Amino acid sequence: MTDTLLSVKNLTLNIPTGSGTLKAVRGIDFDLKRGETLSIVGESGSGKSLTSLAVMGLLGKSIKRQADEMRFDDIDLQKANRRVMRDLRGNRIAMIFQEPMTSLNPAYTIGDQLTETLLLHRKVSKAAARARAVELLEKVGITAAESRLSQYPHQLSGGLRQRVMIALALMCEPDLLIADEPTTALDVTIQAQILRLLVDLTREMNMAMILITHDLGVVARVADKVAVMYAGELVETGPASEVFAAPSHPYTRGLLRCIPQPGKTERGAPLGTIPGIVPSLIGDVSGCVFRTRCAHARPECREAIPLRGDASHEFKCVHPDGALSEEGEVA
Amino acid sequence: MLPFILKRLGLALLVALTVSFISFSLLFLSGDPAAALAGETASGEDVEAIRRLYGFDRPMLVQYGEWLFSAVQGDFGESYYFKLPVASLIAERLQVTMLLGVCGILFALLTAVPLGVAAAIRPNSLIDRVALFLSVAGQAMPSFWFGLILIVVFAIQLGWLPPSGAATWRHFIMPTIVLGYYAMPAIMRLTRAGMLDVLNSDFIRTARAKGAGEGRVLFKHALRNAIIPVVSLAAVQMGFMLGGSIVVESVFALHGAGFLAWESIARNDLPTVQALILVFSMFYIVFTFLADVLNAWLDPRMRSS
Amino acid sequence: MTDSTDPLYQEIQGPSPRQMLKLRAFGHKGLLFGMGVVGLLVLIAILAPVLAPHDPYAQSLMNRMVPPVFMGGTWEHPLGTDHLGRDYLSRLIYGARVSLLIGAVAALISGVIGTAMGVAAGYFGGKVDAVVTFLINVRLAMPVVLVALAVVAILGGSLTVVVCVLGLLLWDRFAVVMRASTLQVSRRDYVAAAQVIGASTPRILLTEIMPNIFNNLIVVITLEMAHAILLEAALSFLGLGVQPPTPSWGLMVSEGKNMMLFEPWLVLIPGAVLFVLVLAINLMGDGLRDVTAPEGRS
C-alpha cells in the first residue's frame, strides 16, 4: 500500500466546439495522501469541476482527456476499463455534488437510493443495507433516520438532502471523497454545519477529500493543501497554512483580498475585486493566462512562465519572489 | 391524492355533460330533423307524422333531458336504419374497435419508446436520424393511403395477409400497423425529449457516480422519470385513435364501431351517430382521467400531495 | 496595461442574432426542403390554368385509365387518365389548389379562434383561463373525424362547408400553445413595466405580448395547415368531404381505390403528392421552430 492515494500529472482536457478547441484544463499536477484534504479553489469556469469529473471518469463523451499519469492507489485510471471504473465509483471514490435539490432521483425513496450504492458494490442483504443506511443517516445528523428511508427527496429540505448525499457517498466507506462545492447552494447557517460534518467525517474515517470551492474562507478552515486554479491552470499550490500566510501569485492575493478578514479588514473599507473577465480559452493559449487582469503584467508574461517556489509551495509567475508590493493591486 | 382525484373526476363529468349536449344538438344542425329524416320526397303530412312520432315538436331542452336520461341508463334509442337498439348495435361493434385500439397503442408504444430511448442515448447518430425520419414521415402519411399501400403490397402483390375483414388475428395486422403508426411520432418525440432532458440531469450524474452500470442508469434511473409524461400521452393518443378508427376500419372493411359510424353518417342515421360521438368522447374522457390518476401515482411528488 | 495585439485580449466576435438566424435557417436542410417544396406547390396552384395540359373536368370515355408515361403510356397524358378519362396530371395540379386553399383558410379560421382564446386565458388567468381550459378539454374529447363527417353529412359536402367545419374544429392546438406562450411572456418584466406605466390592455396585448409569441404562432399555423389538409383528404376519401367532380387528392385516392387491384398508380400518385405536401409543410414548421428556438432539438 503506497502512501500516495491519488496522483495526477499533466492533466489536459480539451473540448471541441464549433469555433475551435476549448482548452478547458491545461497541464494540471496534484497528488493526495490518504486522509489528506486538498482544496481546489478558483472562480466559476476555471475547470475545477471538470478536473474532479476527470478523476471519476465521468466526463462527457466529447471531452478529450490526456495526462502523463492518473493513478488511484495502484490503479492506472487511464488504462482502467469501464468495469474497473464502475467498481471504483461509489465504492472507493465517492462524490458529492453542488445541487442537493436535483442530485437525488425524484422517483425513488431515500432508502432505495442509499441502499443501491451498497447493494451494487457489496454482497449484503437488503436488510443489512437498510441498517447501514440508518446508521449513516444518524451519523450525518438526521433525526428519525428510520422513517426518512421511505421518504422521497421532494419531502426534504436542501440541507437535509445534502446530508443524504453525504450519507450516500459514505455508504461504502470510500478512500477518497470528492466534494464539488457541497455548500454553495445552501443557506449560510447550513453551510457551516455541512462543512463541519465533512471535516469530522474525513478525520473519523481517515478518508482523503478533494474539496472544490470558490470560497477561500472554507479552505482556510479545512484544507491541508490548496491548489488555486485560474482559467484551466494551477497558478499556485502548497500547504494551506503557507499559501494563506504568504500568497505568491497575484491571482491568489487578489482572491484573498476579496474576503473580509476579522481584525484586518477595516469597517466600511471596500473589499477587493479583480477587474476584467476570464479570457477565452479557445485557440492559442500561451504565457500567463492571468496577465490580462494582472496589475503587474509585463511583456514577458506572454512567454512561457517559469515554475517558482520550492517543491511543496509552487507558483507560476514571471516575478521571482512573488512578494511584490501590493500597490496597484487593489482595484 | 384523493382531493386531486375528486377534482379531476368532477372535471371529467362536466366535460362529458358538455360533449353530450353538443352531440345531441347535432340533430338540430340541419334545421328540421323531422324533414331530414323523412327525406326530400316526403310529403308535409309524413314529416308531421315523423315529428310527432319522435317527439321533435317539443322544446329542445326537454328532448335533450330525456335523451340524456335514457343515455345514462344505456338506452340510446333505436337506429333509424338498422331498426335495432343503438346501444346493442354499438356494444356489438365496439369489440372489434377496442381490440384494434389496444393492438394499435401497444404497437405504437413498443416501437416508439425503444426508438425514442435509442435516439436520446446517441443524439444525431444514425438511429436518431432514422427515428426522426420515421416520425416526420409518420406525421405526414395520410392513414387511408398508408392502409391502401399496405393492401397493395402485402395482400395483393405478396399475398401474405388478407386485405379486409376481421375473421382472424391476421386480419388485424395491417390495421394495427396503420392505426399504431398514427400515434407513434408523438410518443417517440416525447420519449426522446424526456430522455434527453433526464439524461442531462444531476441525479443521473449521481447514479453514475455511485458506480451504476449504463443499463441501470438508463432504465432504472432515467426511463422511470422520462416515461411519466409518455403515459398520459399514450392515453390521449388512445382516445384519438379510437376516434380515428373510422378511417382505418373503412379502408380494411373491419366492421367495428368506426365502420358503423361511417355507415350511419352516410345513411343519416342520427341516433346512432349521436351515440357514437358520445361513446368515443367518453372513451377519451375516461382514458385521460385514468392517465392523470396513474400519472399522479407514478410521480411521488404528486402522490403525496 | 493594455496590449491590443495580445491574443488573450482578442474577443471572439460572434455573429449578431439576426445573422445567427440567417445562418441557422440556411444551414437547416429540412427547412430549406420544406420551404422549397411548399413554394413550388403554391406556384403550381396559382399557375394551374397555365400549367395544366388539359381541362381537369373534361371526360373522355374513349381514353379511360390510360397508364402514366413511365408505365407505357404516352406524353399526351403524362400521368395517365382516371376512370372517366380525365387527365390525371391536370387534376393533380388543380387538386393542389383545393388542398392549399383548405389548409390555409382552415388554419386561418382556427388560428384566429384559438389565438384569441389562448392569449385571453394566458393573460387574464383566473376564470377566463378556467373557461378556456375547460373548452379545450371539451374540444379534445370530441372525435374530430367523426364530428366533421357528421356535420358535413348534415350540411352537405362543399368546399366552403369543409373549410368552415375544419376551421371550427382545429383551434385546440392554437389555444394550448398560445395560452402557454402568453403565460410565459406575461410574467416577464417588460410586461409588468408596461402595466406600471399605465398602458391599456389592448396595447399591451398588441405591442408586448403578440410580437413575443409570434414565432410560436407561425409554427402552429404551419402544423395545423398540414393537419387540415390531411383531414380534408380523409373526409373526401370517405366520400363526405369535397364532392366530385372537384379534383381533391383525397377524392382521387378514393376514386382510384376500386381499380387498385389492376391500376395501383391511380392510388399511389395522388397519395404520394399529398404525402409530399404535408411532409414539406411539417418540415417547414419543425424547421421554423428549430431556427427560432434552437434549444428545441439538441
Automatic annotation (TrEMBL), chain A:
Gene3D superfamilies: P-loop containing nucleotide triphosphate hydrolases. PROSITE patterns: ABC_TRANSPORTER_2. Residues 6-256 form the ABC transporter domain. Keywords: ATP-binding, Cell membrane, Membrane, Nucleotide-binding, Transport. Pfam families: ABC_tran, oligo_HPY. GO terms for cellular component: plasma membrane. It is found in: Cell inner membrane. One of its GO terms (biological process) is transmembrane transport. It is a peripheral membrane protein. PANTHER family: DIPEPTIDE TRANSPORT ATP-BINDING PROTEIN DPPD (PTHR43297:SF2), OLIGOPEPTIDE TRANSPORT ATP-BINDING PROTEIN APPD (PTHR43297). Belongs to the ABC transporter superfamily. This is Peptide/nickel transport system ATP-binding protein.
Automatic annotation (TrEMBL), chain B:
InterPro entries: BPD_transp_1_N (IPR045621), MetI-like (IPR000515), MetI-like_sf (IPR035906). The keyword Transmembrane helix applies. One of its GO terms (cellular component) is plasma membrane. The chain crosses the membrane at residues 98-121, 133-160, 172-191, 226-255, 275-298. One of its GO terms (molecular function) is dipeptide transmembrane transporter activity. CDD domains: TM_PBP2. Keywords: Cell membrane, Membrane, Plasmid, Transmembrane, Transmembrane helix, Transport. Residues 94-291 form the ABC transmembrane type-1 domain. Pfam families: BPD_transp_1, BPD_transp_1_N. It is found in: Cell membrane. It is a multi-pass membrane protein. Its main location: membrane. Belongs to the binding-protein-dependent transport system permease family. This is ABC transporter permease.
UniProtKB/TrEMBL annotation, chain C:
Its main location: membrane. PROSITE patterns: ABC_TM1. The chain crosses the membrane at residues 30-52, 98-124, 144-171, 213-242, 262-281. Coiled coil: none annotated. GO terms for cellular component: plasma membrane. It is found in: Cell membrane. Keywords: Cell membrane, Membrane, Plasmid, Transmembrane, Transmembrane helix, Transport. The keyword Transmembrane helix applies. It comes from the Bacteria. It is a multi-pass membrane protein. Residues 96-285 form the ABC transmembrane type-1 domain. GO terms for biological process: transmembrane transport. InterPro entries: BP-dependent_transpt_permease (IPR050366), MetI-like (IPR000515), MetI-like_sf (IPR035906), OppC_N (IPR025966). Belongs to the binding-protein-dependent transport system permease family. This is ABC transporter permease. The lineage of its organism: Bacteria, Pseudomonadati, Pseudomonadota, Alphaproteobacteria, Rhodobacterales.
